[in-house]
Amino acid sequence: MTITHTPGWQKERTETLEQYVSSQFDGYDYEGGQLENLRRTVRHQNKAFARLLDILAQKEIVSAPDITEIVRGVRDNAATLSD
Q: What is the pTM assigned to this prediction?
């Protein structure tokens, strides 16, 4: 599957989803060291995963107990979601 998008100041381009996601998650910065780059990459992944769960919850595809099981590995049947 591909995605066509306009990344900021660049012209429109088409990439595979794998290429797009990999480039967006990459925390590489030419001024940063390896640990800083790794931290940025992990932070990008964490934020994207949280946004994914939020979208799935808004569409009522996953519930609060589902989210607790995904994130912590333990299902909390008393968990609830609110706006």
A: 0.78
